[in-house]
Amino acid sequence: MPKCQAPVLLALLVLSVLAVAAGTGCNGVRRRLTIRTDPPGATVWVNDQEIGRTPISHNITYSGTYKIRLAMEGKKTKTVMYAVKTPWYLWPGVDFISENLVPGELRDQQICDERLEPDLVAAPEELFENAAQMRQEAHQQADLNRYQQNTASRDSAEPAAERLSESGWVKPD
Fold first, then answer.
1. 132/138 Cα distance (integer angstroms)
2. How many domains does the chain have?
3. CA 24, CA 22: separation in Å to the nearest integer?
4. Is 53 part of any domain?
5. In this structure, are residues 60 and 32 in contact, taking their beta carbons and an 8 Å threshold?
6. For 94-114, what is the mean pLDDT?
7. pTM: predicted TM-score of the whole model, two decimal places
8. Residue 158 confidence (pLDDT) above 60
């Protein structure tokens, strides 16, 4: 066998082993974002798409910032910008090996824990008191408006009275 064929055969053998290894048992990287709230049961939107209720896990495809909105009856709606960091095995260059040549599955699990605050609702007595006060202010304003209208119409009616004809009919201007 000539000397120049040996390195070529060795390279082909190594590539064949890598191709077989890459084709068997390599599942790549599974990336999940788990969102939990205290209390559980909040409706979750990730980047303005509803995905369900907490606790929930959601598949993600990229590192970066995700907009997470949490809403629950009786709690304040909360919006957070959650930064998903890139793990070392997904850095450029290393990611080819971790996604194609490492046997099994690598898991990148991100967890977002948020506490929801109670929505401050006024007591019924306070609401009734505020409503009565607003009603009283509205009636006072209406009375003031009526008084101003009556005063204005009385002031404008005096010149018209001077132009009354014998029949009592006023000619429009």
1. 10
2. 2
3. 6
4. yes
5. yes
6. 78
7. 0.53
8. no
